[in-house]
Amino acid sequence: MALSEIKDNSSFFRFLCERVKVSSLLAVFVAGATTAALMLSLESSLSSIEERAGALPWLVAPDNTLEERITIVSIDERSLAEVGPWPWSWDLIAELVDKINNAGAQLQIHDILYPPGDRTFDDRLLNSLTEPERSIIAQLPILQVQEEALRTGVLTNPVNGVSCQNETLVGRFPRTSNFIGSSEKLSPVPKGHIVPIIDSDGAVRRIPAMVCVDGAAFPALALAPFFQLVGTGPWQAEIAPASGVFGPDQTLKFDSYPGLQVPLDAEGNMRISFRKSPSAFRSISAADILNGNFDENVLDNVLVLVGATAFGLDDIVPTPYSGYSPGVELQARLLSSVLDERVPYSPSEGWLIGAFTCLLLAFASLQLALLRGRYAMLGLPLMTLLSPLLALGLHGVMLVNFGVWIGWVTAALFGFLTSTFLLLVEHARIRLERFRVVQNLTSYLPVETARKVAFESPSSLIQAERCDVTLLSADLRNFSAIGERRPPEESASILHYFFTKVNEIVERHGGRVHEYKGDNVLVVWDGDGASSALNALNASVEIESEINSTLLSETGVNGLEPLAVGIGIEQGPVLHGSIGPAHRRAHTLCGETVSVALRIQEMTADLSYSILIGEVAARYLQDAPLKSLGHYMLPGLTTAHVLFAPKVLEKEPKEAKTELTLLKGGLI
Questions:
Q1: Which of 411, 443, 475 is the last residue before a domain boundary?
Q2: What is the number of domains present in the chain?
């Protein structure tokens, strides 16, 4: 659809709306493409931002309820100071295990690796760990790439029913051939791996549910209790595929605990929950246990996690709550979330939720953009700021209330870019419309006046200033007569050509058209003196020559009344500005100089001169050949004025012209 096809204001409005819709939809498409490109190119950085900020809902509303099912026995700085530096002797560790068992612990879970070494081994530690069958210790498959194979100690207690040969998404787990196992002498003790998944920022947020070594799947330390508590037989489990849009990628099911399910991601990892605050977990120093300085009720019938919390033992990891949290706290969090069946997970079709969130943000931004004007200019910047907060808020609601990690960066980035691009489109549209308004106003008003009208609020006061100008008033004499005899289209064509030609000549000589009124043109040159007066004279001579030679006939032909251009020039002070009520202003020139210039132009018909010059302007045209015509009382004025005519226009009579220029649309 071209502008030439727009017939009226309503069609133009529809045309503009269509263009706005197309450009807005294009902005949304560009925002989507940009978001995809940024997510691919900045995946690592954006993933870190998403993880850090995505955990904020846990920090804003943490669960401070005391976790009474789990107690941490910490090998802290005080324990090392009182008992001695690590590693402790097997006998001392056996004493710690016995005291915990004697306090009535349901199960001991040692987040400590007991590798083969130089320490003297006696049967007391093995008996302490195995006799009541209430202990589990750690083993460590190594997922990092090693230059040389590393296989120390033994790995025990693989899980039956979980295949490590599956290449599909279901049952996919990390694989390695390297490990640091426990001492062979502790082979009878049940074990679980403590392999962390370390993100690029050094934080641990996921732990593999299983690690495959030599074709066997070994469970995580936090999952081992759920195999051990129900019997001494082989550990059995199965992996179920995703079910439903909101379900996890895969699910770990325990044969020993029907109904207990642990959601896993596509790589077989469990996400660590930070819903509970660190203060929710009870902790007792190992020194107090060894010294008997503790309340045995806090260990009675609970899961006891034994782990290092001393800073020097190098088991410190950053968490959302602290930059140096002990690793045993992560094991406590995993145990607690499995017991509550609130292990966080990302839905298998989480992209649908993200896409729906993006659509909502895009719809809201598009609605604001289509409202346009003030709503768009205020609403879109607000949406730019709110989009990341809305995406993060939705993520937080799902995480805190349902334990579902949907992510937020993609939706936040898309919403931010969509609002920004739509704001740029709206800004460009407003600039284009403003340019069109000013351009249209300058077609009717002087440039400076048009800018004031476009950019300043209207006022009901007189807004004018006094200045000195040179005025030129040009008029088509006998034009009213032609209007009686000829079609209005022909009259309009003549006027169009006349106005266009005068404007072209005037601008070439440094003047500007103030107004078109009827068949009259009022032209202004700023300032007084010889320069502006000479420019006005030169323009008037060129107007007279151009108009009469191309358009106007000096004699009537076949009923076409004779036309002639009459020009009056004068110089002096005027009041230049706008007047009238605020809702209907008029731009005008006021003062004696205006009246004199108009009346001088009227005298051209009576004196038969096409150009007449007032005495003030003539005073500055000393170098121009002027002819004084004497004093005249101008119509409507009370003071006589001396009029002058340029001698350059005096010429010998010549035969009447009988040729006329054919006009079409006001152009020759």
A1: 443
A2: 3
Are 362 and 274 part of one and the same domain? no
Q: What local confidence, expressed as pLDDT, does residue 555 receive? A: 39
pLDDT of residue 90: 87
> For the chain, which ranges sit under pLDDT 70?
1-21, 118-122, 145-147, 166-171, 231-232, 454-456, 551-562, 648-668
* Count of helices and strands (H, E) across the chain: 18, 28
Going 84 to 90 to 93 to 94, the CA torsion angle's sign is negative
- Rounded-to-integer distance, Cα 133 and Cα 129, Å: 7
Q: Return the pLDDT at 345.
A: 93
Number of Cβ within 10 Å of residue 667's Cβ equals: 9
Are 132 and 274 part of one and the same domain?
yes
Residues 464 and 331 in one domain: no
406 and 464 part of one domain: no
Q: Do 311 and 390 fall into the same domain?
A: no
Domain co-membership, 132 together with 229: yes
How many other C-beta atoms lie within 10 A of the C-beta of residue 453?
A: 18
Please give the DSSP secondary-structure letter assigned to residue 386. H
> Residue 226's closest CA among 196, 252, 195?
252
Q: What is the CATH number of the domain that holds 523?
A: 3.30.70.1230
Question: Strand pairing of 640-646 and 626-633?
Answer: antiparallel
- What's the predicted TM-score (pTM) here? 0.71
| Residue 535 identity (one-letter amino acid) | N
Strand (E) or helix (H) holding 409: helix 409-444
Last residue within a domain, chosen from 283, 311, 339: 339
Domain enclosing residue 396, as ranges: 11-41+349-443
- Spatial neighbors of 493 by CB under 8 A, at least 6 apart, are 663, 664, 665, 666
Task: Yes or no: say if 237 and 254 are a contact pair by the CB < 8 Å rule.
Answer: yes
State how far the Cα of 558 lies from the Cα of 570, in Å rounded to an integer: 37
DSSP 531-543: HHHHHHHHHHHHH
Instruction: Give 14-22 contacts, CB < 8 A, sequence gap 24+.
Output: 20/369, 20/370, 20/372, 20/425, 20/429, 21/370
**pLDDT for position 652:** 44
Q: Do 161 and 28 have their domain in common?
A: no
Q: Read off the pLDDT of residues 465-487 as tens digits, 9 standing for 90 and up.
A: 889 999 999 998 878 777 777 78
HSE on the CB side for 499, CA within 13 Å? 20
Question: In the beta sheet, which residues pair with residue 208?
Answer: 269
| Predicted confidence (pLDDT) per residue in 63-72, tens digit | 999 999 999 9
